[in-house]
Task: inverse folding
């Protein structure tokens, strides 16, 4: 049976179309939804932020607002999806101070919206992935809880210092026996001070570097992601 050239061309075109349809979508390539070109920020994307205010577990309360800004443009395939200077809003969902005997200070932040320099606003779900700019803190869990490092060593040092001071006073006032009594009293005093004082608070200074992780896929209008502010000029 002889196959016509027209049939061969149709088969080749069908094969090319099938191959193209099987390619994975480019997240940075604009798609069209509801007549608008859109860009997709995949879940799991990590974006560096700079904190715009000081936050401390000493004064923070659940529900307090959090303000940050993108520290660097987020680019995918040579396309700027999130320009530098984009504002990120969030809120504190849990603030816990350090305990007197045990329990460290903890802070949980969730990011809720993204405001582009031109005013375009997008809702998002974001959490803290890392705090490279914060001292003496670490990440407790995948939820994004920031935890203050343990200060048990500091309290032990205070107790030891109290014991040494008591020993010196006891030796001066009561000889060798007094030194032992003084050391015991000083140790008890140092331990009591340690128990009365709270553990160190989590404190994030303005400008602290924070890494945000996008928790779910976010779609943005490709025509409104410009880093320039929109200016309307009226002619008289």
Result:
């Amino acid at each position: 049976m002889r196959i016509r050239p027209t049939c061969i061309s149709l088969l080749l075109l069908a094969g090319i179309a099938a191959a193209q349809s099987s390619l994975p979508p480019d997240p940075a390539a604009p798609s069209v939804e509801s007549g608008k070109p859109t860009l997709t920020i995949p879940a799991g994307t990590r974006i560096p932020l700079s904190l715009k205010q000081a936050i401390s577990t000493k004064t923070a309360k659940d529900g307090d607002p959090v303000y940050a800004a993108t520290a660097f443009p987020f680019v995918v395939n040579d396309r700027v999806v999130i320009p530098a200077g984009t504002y990120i809003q969030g809120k504190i969902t849990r603030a816990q101070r350090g305990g007197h005997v045990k329990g460290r200070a903890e802070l949980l932040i969730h990011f809720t919206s993204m405001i582009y320099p031109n005013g375009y606003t997008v809702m998002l779900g974001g959490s803290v992935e890392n705090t490279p700019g914060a001292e003496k803190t670490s990440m407790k869990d995948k939820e994004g809880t920031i935890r203050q490092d343990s200060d048990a060593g500091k309290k032990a040092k205070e107790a030891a210092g109290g014991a040494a001071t008591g020993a010196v006073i006891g030796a001066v006032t009561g000889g060798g026996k007094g030194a032992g009594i003084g050391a015991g009293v000083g140790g008890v005093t140092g331990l009591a001070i340690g128990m009365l004082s709270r553990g160190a608070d989590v404190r994030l200074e303005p400008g602290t570097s924070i890494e945000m992780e996008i928790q779910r896929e976010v779609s943005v209008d490709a025509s409104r992601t410009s880093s320039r502010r929109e200016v309307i000029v009226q002619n008289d």
Observations:
- The helical segments are 5-21, 152-196.
- The chain has two helices and 15 strands.
